[in-house]
Write a structure and sequence with these properties.
The chain is of the alpha+beta class. The protein is about 40% helix and about 25% strand.
């Protein structure tokens, strides 16, 4: 039973181990490989003739073969090599060859392979060996016999004949002398002596010996006999049983060999493997790997089941203890924690505990694997540091600063306190880089950073957030006098002479300051506003500082918008959303309006109310208009190719665009390029945009209407509304401005004007569309007064082209 338990234990632990293990016979053929080995090589072992050296890079095969021959001579060898993976990449492995000794002979070699580049996977499954190490126990063959001392006769059961290799039907009962002939060597005398002593003393005996069948086959049997005595104390009978234990002896011997093999593997693995009998509160298995990790003899762990807990870092003990309770529920736990070794060395370990419950759900055994991941942890900490720190100054970078600032804001909000963000811009730093070189520039930054580090405390964070920009966060700071003192102190440190090589350098700075929560309640707003204040300080003069003011938004935003607007087309920052226009009653889609949108990489969505007027002022509106026409035609073509029933699309066009020389030809060429019927394009024009150029605009409109393009008068009811425009320009569609629709249900002048516009449009046989319809009351009013078409949030917000395609499939909204 002990051997059976160990076999189950070994199998379970190997399932959880991640290193590749091959069993190789003396000819070098791979007879077995676990799942981890398959993953390492990327080749599934199917043929017995396949050899491990076949996977090894050809430049390393000769070395591997020589080392394999040394292992066949009984020597354990370890080496590093390169293997060919089926993904055509090379993997670097550490391979340990462990000879398998059976009956003092090398029966094969275990190859334990570890991927040096993936230490974190070493504790994964070692399960595949289990199926090759299980053994089936056979039922014992038991034969009985009876010996009558007085008559000197024996009786054998048929099964005993089978055990001895004799025919039960031959009616031949061997005597003791005959039986001894079947027994080999010294076992004859041992059995004869046992029988004689039983006959003379009446004592029972049991003996194990080797039995040779007539065909020469050797069997191992266990015999037990009792003497039967008469009233005078004389032995009159011997009764015995013979148990054929050949198979069980083979199994026991093999299990012992397997145990020795496993023990060899365990004690050569870097990971520690252990097992605890919970009911006896005793550790029953502890490999050398545990000893190597903790720096304590394995025997100590076997003597004290709870010894490992004394090594745990005090800060990690509560978490480790809490997780241990999950074992009672049968849940496997995985943990990473710190330990102090016997020598006082701090290590990070990764442990896995595998519980076993009995049929009543009670925890009876815990098997475990523990690995030293200190090197892995140090590597990950280094990666984290590199990802969150500037390599020149070793200061936190922008990513780290924003993360910590978010935590500070949360802290200040809880404490109902304030904080200040100082945004420092170095003046003339780029000039120094360009004239003296980046090496001098880097060393200059390092000097400034080292000077400013004196301000850093647990309540102050300093970071490099740009090429020539630093940021500092001060907790519990809000008063302007405090800000002024700190700014003066920062200027004093920054503007001191810095000597690098033969250069005496002087640097000035501009500082912008934003205060939480007054100037923003989130990271992005605080940094943006501090940056705006810093730029304002630069505009005023060098070595100056500014507190953020909302007035700075309007002063600086237009400048940055104009600069960004010029690059937006090149950077593909514009996109189009579409808003349906539907029949008022049936809600069938009649047409859609194309609306240009700007997604700035830093500011996010920019309102059209901000960038459209700016585009008009800078004459970029013409390029924007051409871009919209191009993309609308392209989108119409895509929808048609998708088999959708398309509808006309309206495009807002400015007077400057209409005045562009060759505008009509450009529209015609674009429509032809995408094979778009001109009737599917409608241009929306406002009265204010045409009032100064009526003759030219009318000429352009007439030329486009001749080819089928239609026009809509947008925002009618506002600005320079004139009945003459409706008559002279012959617009196809009239759009009522949303300001009238919003007050359409209010009894008053605007309601009367809205009714009049609807009456006028119907009388002129014009298509009329109400913009900005949002409520059921507005919809009811428009239905009552025969407004045929509506557009607004009550139907749909502006949507992306994918969503609009779904609308076109539905047809009704």
């Amino acid at each position: 039973m002990i051997m059976k338990h160990l076999d189950r234990l070994n199998t379970q632990l190997l399932k959880e181990y991640s290193e590749g293990i091959f069993f190789i016979n003396c000819e070098g053929d791979i007879m077995f490989s676990n799942e981890a080995a398959f993953k390492l090589t990327g080749n599934e072992h199917k043929q017995k003739s396949q050899q491990l050296t076949a996977f090894i890079h050809k430049t390393k095969q000769q070395q591997a073969q020589e080392l394999f021959q040394r292992a066949l001579k009984g020597e354990k060898v370890q080496f590093s090599t390169t293997i060919n993976h089926n993904t055509k990449k090379e993997l670097h492995l550490s391979i340990t060859l462990i000879p398998i000794i059976v009956s003092e002979q090398v029966a094969g070699v275990y190859a334990v392979c570890r991927d040096n580049s993936k230490e974190q996977e070493r504790s994964n499954h070692i399960s595949k060996l289990e199926t090759h190490l299980k053994m089936e126990q056979k039922l014992a063959n038991v034969g009985s016999w009876y010996y009558d001392v007085g008559e000197d006769k024996s009786y054998w059961s048929p099964q005993l004949y089978n055990i001895c290799g004799l025919n039960p039907n031959q009616h031949f009962t061997p005597s003791l002398k005959d039986v001894l002939q079947f027994i080999s060597g010294c076992d004859q005398k041992r059995l004869e002596k046992a029988v004689m002593e039983a006959l003379s003393t009446g004592e029972s005996y049991n003996i194990e010996y080797a039995l040779i069948r007539p065909n020469g086959e050797e069997r191992t049997v266990f015999e037990q006999a009792d003497a039967v005595m008469d009233e005078q104390g004389n032995v009159i009978h011997l009764i015995g049983v013979v148990h054929d234990i050949t198979e069980s002896k083979v199994i026991t011997n093999e299990l012992k060999q397997k145990e020795q093999q496993f023990q060899t593997i365990y004690n050569n693995l870097d990971a520690g493997i252990w097992s605890v009998d919970v009911q006896r509160n005793k550790m029953i298995v502890c490999s050398n790997g545990v000893s190597n990790i903790y720096g304590e003899d394995a025997i100590k762990f076997l003597e004290d089941r709870n010894l490992w807990e004394s090594f745990i870092h005090p800060e990690d003990k509560p978490a480790v203890a809490k997780a241990q309770h999950q074992l009672q529920k049968g849940k496997t736990i995985r943990q990473q924690y710190r330990i102090y070794t016997k020598k006082g060395e701090m290590k990070w370990v990764k442990g896995r505990c595998i519980p076993t419950l009995d049929e009543n759900g009670k925890l009876v055994r815990i098997d475990g694997i523990v690995e030293d991941i200190t090197a892995e942890k140090k590597y990950m900490d280094q990666v984290e540091y590199l990802a969150t720190h500037d390599h020149v100054t070793n200061l936190p970078n922008r990513r780290k600063f924003e993360r910590e600032l978010k935590n500070f804001i949360r802290q200040m909000k809880k404490e109902k306190d304030s904080l200040a963000v100082f945004y420092l811009g170095m003046n003339r730093f780029k000039h120094i880089n360009e004239t003296l070189g980046h090496d001098v520039g880097d060393r200059l930054l390092q000097s400034i950073a080292n000077r400013l580090k004196k301000f850093v405390t647990p309540d102050v964070m300093l970071a490099r957030v740009g090429e020539d920009e630093l940021a500092i966060c001060f907790l519990s700071l809000s008063h302007i006098n405090e800000c002024q003192k700190l700014a003066a102190a920062l200027f004093q440190e920054i503007e001191k002479e810095i000597t690098i090589d033969d250069f005496s350098l002087y640097v000035t700075a501009s500082i912008g300051i934003s205060i939480y929560p007054h100037d923003g309640e989130d990271v992005k707003t605080l940094l943006t506003n501090a940056n705006l204040a810093m730029r304002r300080a630069k505009e005023i003069g060098r070595s100056d500082w500014q507190l953020y003011s909302p007035l700075m938004d309007s002063e600086t935003k237009s400048y940055h918008l104009e600069k960004g607007l010029r690059n937006a087309l090149l950077q593909d920052e514009f996109f189009i959303e579409y808003q349906p226009k539907v029949h008022t009653n049936s809600r069938e889609i009649d047409s859609i309006e194309a609306l240009i949108r700007w997604n700035h990489p830093e500011w996010g969505r920019v309102s059209p109310e901000d960038f459209i007027p700016l585009a008009e002022e800078t004459h970029l509106i013409i390029e924007l208009g051409d871009w919209v026409i191009e993309h609308v035609c392209k989108q119409l073509q895509q929808w048609e190719n998708q088999g959708l029933q398309t509808v006309p699309v309206s495009i807002n066009v400015s007077s400057k665009h209409l005045l562009k020389r060759g505008f009509v030809e450009h529209v015609q060429q674009t429509l032809a390029r995408y094979s778009i019927d001109p009737s599917f394009i409608e241009f929306e024009v406002t009265e204010s945009s045409i009032i100064q150029y009526e003759e030219h605009v009318k000429k352009v409109m007439d030329e486009l209407k001749k080819i089928g393009v239609t026009f809509a008068l947008d925002d009618f009811g506002t600005g320079f509304s004139s009945l003459s425009h409706l008559k002279d320009f012959e617009f196809n569609t009239l759009k009522i401005d949303k300001t009238f629709i919003q007050h359409a249900t209010d009894k008053g002048k605007q309601q009367a004007i809205t009714q009049s516009i609807l009456y006028l449009a119907n009388a002129l046989n014009m298509k009329v569309i109400a913009e900005g319809v949002e409520t059921k009351e507005q919809l009811a009013f428009l239905q009552k007064h025969a407004c045929s078409f509506i557009q607004g949030y009550i139907v749909s917000q502006p949507a992306a082209h994918q969503k609009t395609a779904e609308y076109l499939k539905m047809r009704f909204l």
